Amino acid sequence: MPKVFVNNIEIDVAENSTVLQAVNKAGGYVPTLCYMNLEEIGIENKPSSCRVCVVEVEGRKNLAPACVTPVFEGMKINTHSRRAINARRTVVQLLLSDHPQDCLKCPKNGDCELQSIASELNITRNPYMGKKSMYDKDISAAIIRDPNKCIMCRKCETACNEYQTVGVLSAVERGFDSVVKPTFDWSLEDTNCTFCGQCVAVCPTAALVENDYIQEVWDEIEDKEKHVVVQTAPAVRVALAEEFGHKPGTISTGKLVGVLKMMGFDKVFDTNFAADLTIMEEATEFVDRLQNGGTMPMLTSCCPGWVKFLEHQFPELIDSPSTAKSPQQMFGSIAKSYYAEANNIDPKNVTVVSIMPCLAKKYEAGRDELNFSEEYKDVDYVITTRELAKMIKESGFNFDSIPEVKYDNPLGESTGAAAIFGRTGGVAEAALRTAYEWITGEELLEVEFEGLHGYNSIRIAEVDIKGTPIRVGVAFGLGNVRKLLEDIRDGREKVDLIEVMACPGGCVGGGGQPYHHGNFDVIKKRIEAINNVDRTSTIRKSHENPSIKKLYEEYLDKPGSDKSHKLLHTHYFE
Ligand code: HC1
Ligand code: SF4
Fold first, then answer.
1. Is the pTM value of this prediction over 0.90?
2. Which PANTHER family match (predicted)?
3. Rounded Cα–Cα distance for residues 217 and 158 (Å)
4. Are 427 and 302 contacting, i.e. CB atoms less than 8 angstroms apart?
5. Shortest CA distance to 353 belongs to which of 450, 482, 236?
6. Which of 95, 113, 147 is the last residue of a domain?
7. Which of 208, 450, 481, 525 has the fewest beta carbons under 10 Å from its own?
8. Candidates 326, 386, 500: which one to mutate for ligand 1, based on the most atoms within 8 Å of Cβ?
């Protein structure tokens, strides 16, 4: 174990450590912009391009970039020599010299890493003002790409090309003209982009941000003709509080409902209700395929980033996903049919707003084949957890004093099985809780399937359904999904059911969640919180949800009925 000195303090570090790791171990700090390492899930970015992390190393003439410089025995590191600080200031001033100076109206204002490092380094003026990049913005339903704000950290490239293996973003040109963008300068909408938002999740500036619909949602709430209902996704309740200074993993379901009421929504409903409904349809389809020789393995279909990935990358598997629409879309269909009819409201006057942890949900809401009516969309506006936090802040509500309120019913009642949709392995587990009882006719006493829990990116579990072994594959991160699907295609693995989520840890790590700043522990805490929501639920199986039973009795007849198919199912495109 080499001994090194960080600012004169001696510490032992692991072999092959970098200076940055040594500094972190010593409890010190050097700023970074391009460095990112989510070690547990295999995302690493260290092009050493920004040079913000330079430090002084005794005996070395040039300053050393901490993120890539290996330590050696007896190394003496000074993180804050005047020379190192001045070099960092110059680096940041040069970056700012070609950066739009519009911080006050920038969507990342307050969340921008470049802005906070500039402030940390006390940069109040800039001697290097010169030529400026002038690119057009690329605006899609989910993502806004502003190359003028790109600082060439390459994090988005790593997220898209190495982690997701979608390969849409890459660095082009040289020198001052270098920028990260899609091939041929195409708009993201014209590429294979899945809108997973993982590039947005890691972008340190506003070069990549969500397309926000905050003003549109306020306008709907203000419109007296409109009956505005809102649904909240499973993963939002375990992350929103982070935006208000609470620890990752804080559960704020009651406050979430309370604040949406205070904001003026007519009804506050739960996507979890629709997740239970999804299980009714998906488990029916799974049992049918299993018993009657349908296409196997069955793939889950609730993650829109994954569905788009499948359509582009695995067209030969187009018959494999469940035809069940995602909970977001099922909720919209039921709100504009069953709920509107029961309350005598013209569905054209019902506005459905979704609060989602995800950017691909914005894209999903615009897919025609997911809308049951030709006259209106299932879901009108999708905003992210981050956008909701902005609306709460803008309204001046003090998060800590928001009262805890319960969801409205009937579209607000849900089970623990629905809650776990928000974490990796949860959709498969929820489906099996129901399928087990339907197949065996017996009560499932131990509802948690251990093999479906955990943080590994690819997991295979075998579940015994009274002598019939069901093999379940779970994968998150599209690159891992690719590996699993290739193993199945090439006969190295055989499974019956596959749950796929595009984002790290499932929806809890979605591209619309509060920024995790490269720390996977944040995502793990959210997963634990999701499990707590399940474990403290009185009902933990979707088919036991009383409001779901009533919906079938009064309206849909039974899972897989003609009406269910019209409202709750879809098809995919090669
Ligand atoms: Fe998800 Fe889903 S779990 S996709 O991860 O099936 O976004 O939270 O809302 O639709 O329920 C996201 C989360 C979400 C859907 C559900
Ligand atoms: Fe790549 Fe996902 Fe970003 Fe699209 S949204 S560019 S697929 S990382």
1. yes
2. NITRATE, FORMATE, IRON DEHYDROGENASE
3. 33
4. yes
5. 236
6. 95
7. 450
8. 326
